[in-house]
Design brief:
heterodimer, A: alpha/beta, Rossmann fold, 11 helices, globular, B: about 140 residues, alpha+beta, Alpha-Beta Plaits, 2 domains, 4 helices, elongated
Chain lengths: ~325, ~140
């Protein structure tokens, strides 16, 4: 096992040399690259990466350029996870046969996917990887919408959100269904480590990524990625919106170890009303009319219920 | 660099980020890396900007919030110090200015044509907090 990179504080972290290059075509203020940087900088080891089709893939590999300073595989929408799993299986086989050219260098295997590739299209492939128990990490960049193709709903889109295939109007308040609980599903696979992270809480995130790298077996990371284009807020507010999301507990930060033991890793000092988080984004604008006000109350209730549930899970440690 | 059409590719094409052998990239700073012509580091998105951030090192406390939250790797940090901004890769989103905790901010957005010396000369002074100003208003 290779050494874990020491990151005590932000000053020390800032001596890292990025392995992800700028001048990619992601929108100004996109949280995707903040997440990718935090993941890649959490280790100094060699990396073998893949990205499922989505904003991240199409924006970082525009011919004749690549944004990645590590081995990176350009692959289909559904099989980012299996591409990395295949590379990992090959690594294991070569290691067993003693045919690795540099056996002292232990690479890390990471697959990135958007919420479309994770919650819907690539779900079966990811489930397969986790069932087979590859030693890899899957990072879901969860922006709650198919942002790359113009804002269609995915099964990660939360209730009341206006997307192009679930538009809000005089008869509809937008998306009708609740967000799929991907964390619970991945934990139910018996994965050694499953965690929810947000880029604005960098220390919590880097600690979780390092725990994930240290774990033996498939690791699932659900990273909240605030989308300035589809959530409809100004590009400079990415971190402010992310702060609202974590402080209002819409995105609680927690981890599940060995599929059972749940730890809450961030408890906001002042819990912000969900209304503040929703009001800051254009996709929920219609909820602040008389007609759809009841959805706001339902939102708050959903978030409170979830938080109570997580606290009870943590207390019972089951 | 020769550009191929969509049908000029072989299946399993590879783009190299670096020329020749590149080892330990994670511990090599960008200025020492053998970037190839197909690395996006060689490209620029400077024409995306309407406003640019300017940096005043007199007020900077090297907290590195701008470094960690910059989505475009455009904040240059060396030896735990904030050194400057990479204007080839900055898209002008303004996150660095929003997260800057100093008073006055050591990063501010200016129109793209603004002269840096002029901007630094006219940098806003420390804002007094609201409580201190209240008695004057009375």
């Amino acid at each position: 096992m290779s050494e874990i990179k020491k990151i005590k504080n932000l000053k020390e972290f800032s001596t890292s040399a990025d392995r992800f290059e700028g001048a990619n075509l992601l929108c100004p203020g996109c949280a995707h690259s903040i997440i990718v940087r935090e993941v890649l900088n959490a280790t100094n080891d060699d990396l073998i990466l893949a990205a499922s089709t989505g904003c991240l893939e199409v924006c970082t590999a525009v011919y004749p350029y690549t944004s990645w300073d590590a081995s990176w595989i350009h692959i289909g929408f559904e099989n980012g996870s299996t591409a990395v799993a295949g590379a990992e299986a090959m690594y294991k086989a070569l290691k067993k046969k003693g045919r690795l050219k540099q056996p002292d260098r232990v690479p890390k295997f990471v697959a990135f996917g958007g919420d479309g590739a994770t919650y819907d299209i690539g779900f079966q492939w990811i489930s397969g990887c986790f069932e087979r128990g590859h030693n890899m990490m899957y990072v879901c960049l969860d922006n709650e919408v198919y942002a790359n193709t113009g804002g269609q709903r995915s099964s990660s889109t939360p209730i009341g959100s206006s997307a192009t295939t679930s538009p809000a109007g005089s008869t509809s308040y937008g998306e009708k269904k609740m967000k799929k609980d991907m964390m619970a599903i991945m934990a139910a696979h018996g994965a050694p480590y499953v965690a929810q992270v947000a880029p604005n809480k960098w220390k919590d995130m880097v600690a979780k990524i390092q725990k994930g790298f240290a774990a033996e077996g498939p690791v699932y990371i659900n990273a909240m990625s605030a989308c300035t284009t589809e959530w409809k807020f100004a590009p400079e507010d990415t971190i402010a919106i992310s702060d609202l999301a974590t402080d209002s507990l819409v995105f609680p930060l927690y981890e599940i170890i060995d599929g059972t033991k749940l730890n809450i890793t961030y408890r906001p000092k002042n819990i912000v009303p969900v209304r503040d988080y929703l009001g800051a984004q254009g996709r929920f604008k219609h909820l602040f009319t008389k007609q759809y006000e009841h959805i706001l109350d339902q939102w708050q209730k959903n978030v409170d219920d979830k938080w109570t549930y997580l606290q009870r899970r943590e207390e019972a440690s089951v | 660099m020769e550009k191929k059409g969509w049908d000029g590719f072989e299946i399993g094409a590879m783009l190299r980020s670096f020329d020749g052998a590149a080892r330990d990239i994670a511990t090599t700073l960008p200025e020492n890396r053998p970037y190839s012509q197909s690395n996006l580091f060689k490209a620029s998105v400077a024409d995306w900007r309407i406003e640019k951030p300017l940096f005043n090192k007199d007020y900077c406390i090297d907290c590195q919030f701008c470094w960690i939250y910059c989505p475009d790797m455009s904040i240059i940090a060396r030896d735990k110090k904030m050194v400057g901004i990479d204007f080839d890769h900055c898209k002008g989103c303004g996150i660095c200015v929003e997260v800057c905790p100093t008073n006055p901010k050591s990063l501010l957005m200016f129109p793209e044509q603004k002269d840096e010396e002029q901007a630094l000369a006219g940098w806003p002074k420390k804002e007094k907090n609201a409580k201190a100003e209240e008695p004057k208003e009375d």
